[in-house]
UniProtKB/TrEMBL annotation:
Name of the molecule in the record: DNA-binding protein HU
GO MF annotations, alphabetized: DNA binding; structural constituent of chromatin
Short name of any one Pfam family annotated for the protein: Bac_DNA_binding
UniProt source species: Vagococcus elongatus
Recorded coiled-coil stretches: none
Taxonomy, superkingdom: Bacteria
Amino acid sequence: MGLKKLKHEDLVAKHVELHGGTKKEAEEAIVNTFSTVESLMAAGVSEGVRVPIKNFGIFTAKMSKERTQNNHLAGGVITIPSMPTISFKKSKSLKV
């Protein structure tokens, strides 16, 4: 049983079906929503920003901790630097 891959056009068509309007208006709404989330995440990654979207979930941006890891090929320890990460916790309405 495989997963169905949705395209951007599928999301736009579903938005028009549920909320009406034109495809252009639906695409603008979708793009604007996700670009807003993206800019909030990028701006607040060092502070650990949370972006909740009602009935969808919570995006959280933060910096990962610097850590060490064994390098089995070279036989030593390497340091993995701190880097920005994004996590997502789905809302209860999305849980199956």
